[in-house]
Amino acid sequence: QVQLVESGGGLVQAGGSLRLSCAASGRTFNIYRMSWFRQAPGKEREFVAATIWRIGSTYYADSVKGRFTISRDTAKNTVYQQMNSLKPEDTAVYYCAAGPVHNIDGYWGQGTQVTVSS
Q: What SS3 class is residue 95?
């Protein structure tokens, strides 16, 4: 089992920045990928960004490329998401996900609310 706890959400004006954190605990030794997803009201959950834990390669949804940056601190078992130039359409609950190679995104955090006002 892997436990994930997100933090860092909040209310920000359009154009502002926030940094989300996701701390992993438990059986973290076999994590293959850590990811961020988001779900806006009335919409399906969507992929935002991911990092391959051991090598640090990163992947982004087109909607956030150039504005969001995912990074990791392997010593702290924590993944971050720096979000710049935020837009009202970025408003959503942001979830952290992680898992081994045979169960990518198998574990989820409780989510953290990000609200961007216009």
A: strand
